[in-house]
UniProtKB/TrEMBL annotation:
Family: Belongs to the WD repeat coronin family.
InterPro entries in the cross-refs: Coronin, DUF1899, WD40/YVTN_repeat-like_dom_sf, WD40_repeat_CS, WD40_repeat_dom_sf, WD40_rpt
Gene: Coro2b
Record-given protein name: Coronin
WD repeat start-end pairs: 78-120, 128-170, 171-212
Coiled coil: 444-471
Pfam families recorded: DUF1899, WD40, WD40_4
Transit peptide among keywords: no
Protein keywords: Actin-binding, Coiled coil, Repeat, WD repeat
Length: 475
């Protein structure tokens, strides 16, 4: 795709990115060095959460948004996992509830106190066990409260009903590790990308695969639904190892509508879509820039707008929900950029330049708020409903009255679709077998060293006994 902007009639043609000043950043944060391809950051209108580097388990920080500046090294953490934390997501309807998943095979739900943490939090309000291997992704359902999706390295997607604290459905159509999950607007469809180089559109309640694309020329990594346009956008790699994006019709994945090469860099491309402005943002892992485009309903579908550039590479990006933006500054999107080398979280605001200081209705249409449209039972019974929309005209700050209540339950076997998930362990991958082999070889060497040391010690004792017996005093 040409880097030159296509000048045409568009209210977003002059959108520009503005990085926050140093005093409005979050400094001194030991950002995780984990190489897992996730953002390691989640943000809502009240809190910023960042996965941190820690010994002896996994932890993440939760910082109130107004608490900018330098964060003390002994700042309280959420540190209940026994393995590295791989993904964190805020509940879209209850702003102090966050889900995390980890290498310890568990998914945990945490309730953050008002005003943030005062001491380390080690006890989750709910611990969810159902995966037999590490869990790499968690996603909240976009319209239903207390429905959570988790994807593990056992190639399964589990759907959790948090009102009972159990998995109620299992999607078992993948043959390798799931890389990404994305919902359409009402949450009736789930798109996934997988390490088996396939893009799938799944009906989540039945687990039925509606559409499937075998991407041979375009190896997909990430996918995002483009709002209610019935289209999908994927990022991936071409057969010549250049970074690509592809646009698909969700009802026919036989061929992409368009494929465009971006550049020859190697970092993973993260796509972000704003359904209100029809803008697509592309940010590469390890890049310093963020490209943005406008999505149209007719060819060429993608129109390049501009690029935000920065010399500092990004490890991941958190995205502020729409109701947390500053409408008085015509802010239409906000990133929280993780800069590992500096231990810095830098907010980046995407702004539409307007001279008038009044509310701009054309760039702020009705948008999903913090009220769920469905209960878990309604959604599981087959009901679909669009999100409840709100206006940002008065600066939407209404807190949801929903309170999370953790179910009381005993730890037991987890049976879904007639399969005990904790007993049904899938075959190990080649990498896991190699790691097991090397660990066993290390253990054998260690035991051999111990035996040789003991053998040497026995010989020394035997020699001492012999010398003692042959000494003149004992004759």
């Amino acid at each position: 795709m040409s880097w030159r902007p296509q000048y045409r009639s568009s209210k977003f043609r002059n959108v520009y990115g503005k990085a926050a000043s140093r005093e409005h950043c979050f400094d001194g944060i030991p950002i995780t060095k984990n190489v897992h391809d996730n953002h390691f950051c989640a943000v809502n209108a009240r809190f910023l959460a960042i996965v941190t580097e820690s010994a002896g388990g996994g932890s993440f920080l939760v910082i109130p948004l107004e608490q900018t500046g330098r964060i003390e090294p002994n700042y309280p953490k959420v540190c209940g996992h026994q393995g590295n934390v791989l993904d964190i997501k805020w509940n879209p309807f209850i702003e102090n509830i966050i889900a995390s998943c980890s290498e310890d095979t568990s998914v945990r739900i945490w309730e953050i106190p008002e005003g943030g943490l005062k001491r380390n939090m080690t006890e989750a309000v709910l611990e969810l066990y159902g995966h037999s291997r590490r869990v790499g992704l968690v996603e909240w359902h976009p319209t239903t409260n207390n429905i959570l999706f988790s994807a593990g390295y056992d190639y399964k997607v589990l759907i959790w009903n948090l009102e009972i604290g159990e998995p109620v459905k299992m999607i078992d159509c993948h043959s390798d590790v799931i890389l990404c999950m994305s919902f359409n607007t009402d949450g009736s469809l789930l798109a996934t990308t997988c390490k088996d180089k396939k893009l799938r559109v799944v009906e989540p309640r039945s687990g039925r695969v509606l559409q499937e694309a075998s991407c041979k020329n375009h190896r997909v990594n990430r996918v995002v639904f483009l709002g209610s346009t019935k289209r999908l956008l994927t990022t991936g790699v071409s057969r010549w190892n250049t970074r690509q994006i592809a646009l698909w019709d969700q009802e026919d994945l036989s061929m992409p509508l368009i494929e465009e090469e971006i550049d020859g860099l190697s970092g993973l491309l993260f796509p972000f879509y704003d359904a209100d402005t029809h803008m697509l943002y592309l940010a590469g892992k390890g890049d310093g820039n963020i490209r943005y485009y406008e999505i149209g309903s007719e060819k060429p579908y993608l129109s390049y707008l501009m690029e935000f550039r920065s010399p500092a590479p990004q490890k991941g990006l958190g995205v502020m929900p729409k109701h947390g933006l500053d409408v008085s500054a015509c802010e239409v999107f906000r990133f929280y950029k993780l800069i590992t080398l500096k231990g810095l979280i830098e907010p980046i605001s995407m702004i539409v330049p307007r001279r008038s200081e009044t509310y701009q209705e054309d760039i702020y249409p009705m948008t999903p708020g913090t009220e769920p449209a469905l209960t878990p039972d309604e959604w599981l019974s087959g009901v679909n409903r669009d999100p409840i929309l709100v206006s940002l005209k008065e600066g939407y700050k209404r807190n949801s009255k929903i309170v999370f209540k953790a179910p009381v339950r005993e730890k037991k076997s987890v049976v879904v679709n007639g399969i005990d998930l904790l007993e049904n362990v899938p075959p190990r991958t080649e990498n896991e077998l190699l790691r097991m082999f090397f660990r066993q070889q290390d253990e054998i060497r260690r035991l051999k060293d111990e035996l040789s040391q003991k053998d040497i010690r026995i010989r020394q004792l035997q020699l001492e006994i012999k010398n003692f017996r042959n000494s003149p005093k004992n004759n």
